[in-house]
Structures are given as structure tokens and as C-alpha cells.
Amino acid sequence: MTGRLEGRAALVIGGARGIGGGIATRFAAEGAQVAIADLEDAEGKALAAELGGFYRRTDVSDGAEADAAVAEVVDRFGKIDILVQNAGIYPWTLIEDTSAEEWHKVLGVNLGGCFLATKAAVKHMKTQGYGRIVLTSSITGPRVTSPGHGHYSASKAGINGFIRSAAIEFAGYGVTVNGIEPGNILTEGMKAHRSAEFIKDMESAIPVGRMGTPADIAAAALFLASEEAEFITGTTIVVDGGQIL
Ligand code: NAI
């Protein structure tokens, strides 16, 4: 059986582990050539080698680094059909305790990274007349929130606004721009930043009765990144096991 991304060239930023690792793995299984850009060199290199692609150390909040990652994909794969910008950080800090530096850092990686990566990739996609851009948003910000997530919520709600505007700008060039809003997904980052108690409470708050997995998000990313999703642009898919209902 042919994979759903056969012949496609993909870049997954924030793809060394967690949700991005799940996306990179699924894309490769569906026949895509996959490049991983991240700051976790050891995990990124190991996964890229396993998937038959390559790894490039990239801080997505730096425009020159985002440009260089995209350029290497075009150089090595001959094109870039799919961009996933999934890199994100989620510190927990109450607004009164948040320094301007931390605010700018969260906005710079989560939201700025989506802008910089999209800007870097879209010029190639427009020339090709084909592109699929998938950005990782969150239910936190656009749909729900809680104390301690001021910067994070602003960054993720911002991604949804960016998606809509970018979708209109690129719609005439065969380039779609969409996002995914994950609910609570059990990843390395989640385990590092949230207590075991939080994770247990969360499991009982999710109607489906479990935390999500990177594979759950990868399934949605695969659809948005596929040719079949041609008529879908400027929107997001919530993948949360019913949590926001
Ligand atoms: P994670 O921490 O396990 O993985 C994130 C990856 O992004 C890491 O490999 C990290 O090194 C990389 N990264 C961080 N800053 C970077 C930068 N400046 N440049 C390049 N790479 C960078 O996190 P997880 O849980 O897999 O989250 C992935 C995305 O999904 C994030 O955008 C997060 O906000 C979002 N998300 C996660 C949820 C969850 O429950 N885990 C829920 C909703 C959204």
C-alpha cells in the first residue's frame, strides 16, 4: 500500500520528541522524507537517523536559523511540501510573577516561531504551487485557560489568528495553513512540567478517559498535511478527547 505522503518532503520543527516526534514518525511511515529541527540534539539526531532523514539544530525563535533549516530541506530533498511548526514551551507562571523577559521568550518561541518558520517555507511553497503548513496551537488560549498560563494562552490564541490571515494570503498558491489544538497529551515536556497528581486529575476530567498521545495528534497532522485536505485552510482541529465539552 502506498503511503499518504509518498514523495513529499517534510520539515518538523520541535520534532525531536513528544508530539513533534510522533508527527515525524507518522509522516515517515506514510512515505515522506522527514527533516527534524530542534534544540535537543541527541534525541533529534537519533530519531532522524531512525526515520532515514536528517536533523538540524535550530532555534525557531531566530529568523536566520528558521531560514537555514528550510534552506537545508530544499537543498537536500529538492523541495519543501510540508512544514510543521510544533516547537513550544509551557512554563507555568502567574502574571504578576512573569518577567518581561519570560513573556517575550514564550511569545517568541510559540508564536514568533510560527511566523518565522511560515515565512521561511512559504516562498518555496508558492514557487512550487503546493504546500501544507500545520502549526501546533493548543486548547489553552483559544478555548480554555487557567491561572499561570497568561503568556502561553496569548501565544496560542495568537497562532489561531495568524493561521487565518496566512491562509487567506496563500490560498491562491496551493498552500494551506491550518493548526491543531491538542488537549492534554502525555509527553516528555508534560511529565517535566506537570505533577503526577495533575496528570491523574486530568485523566478523570477527559471524557474519553485517558490522556492523549503523540500518535493522536499525528493522525490529525497527517490529514492536514495530506493532499486530501486541499479544501481545508485557515482552521484548527481540536484533538482533546472531549475535554473542552
Ligand atoms: P516537548 O517539550 O515534549 O517537545 C517540544 C519540542 O520542542 C522539544 O523537543 C523541544 O526541544 C523543542 N523546542 C523547544 N523550544 C524550541 C525552539 N526554540 N526551537 C526549536 N525547538 C524547540 O513538548 P510537547 O508536549 O510535545 O509539546 C509540543 C507542542 O504541543 C508545543 O507547542 C506545546 O505547546 C503543544 N501542546 C502540548 C500539549 C500537551 O499536553 N503536551 C497540549 C497542547 C499543546
UniProtKB/TrEMBL annotation:
Keywords: Oxidoreductase. It comes from the Bacteria. The keyword Oxidoreductase applies. Residues 8-183 form the Ketoreductase domain. SMART domains: PKS_KR. InterPro entries: KR_dom (IPR057326), NAD(P)-bd_dom_sf (IPR036291), Sc_DH/Rdtase_CS (IPR020904), SDR_fam (IPR002347). NCBIfam families: PRK07231.1 (NF005559). Belongs to the short-chain dehydrogenases/reductases (SDR) family. This is SDR family oxidoreductase. It comes from Psychromarinibacter halotolerans.
